[in-house]
Inverse folding.
């Protein structure tokens, strides 16, 4: 069973390379944000698989939850910043 989880973890790392390519060479800022968010989501699953491999799931679940929360907040902050500063979405002026 450990071999299966090891191969799943390696496969996730290969999938992260595709998201990394989109995060670095994305044509738009939104593509880059989605690529970074996808890497963060796959990292959470990878942390859980590492927890199963080391038989310390309780510790790695806490780490994965904290990382998922930080990833979510970072993507929200980045999208809000680019919405306001870079003009991704035009808001009507306040009166």
């Amino acid at each position: 069973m450990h071999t299966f989880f090891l191969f799943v973890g390696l496969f996730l790392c290969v999938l992260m390379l595709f998201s990394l390519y989109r995060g670095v060479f994305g044509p738009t800022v939104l593509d880059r944000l989605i690529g970074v968010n996808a890497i963060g989501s796959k990292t959470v699953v990878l942390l859980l698989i590492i927890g199963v491999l080391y038989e310390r799931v309780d510790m790695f679940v806490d780490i994965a939850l904290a990382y998922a929360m930080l990833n979510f907040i970072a993507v929200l902050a980045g999208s809000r910043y680019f919405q306001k500063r870079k003009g991704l979405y035009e808001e009507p002026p306040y009166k």
Observations:
- The chain has one domain: 2-85.
- Residues 2-85 form one domain.
- DSSP finds three helices and no strands in the chain.
- The CA atoms of residues 25 and 83 lie 20 Å apart.
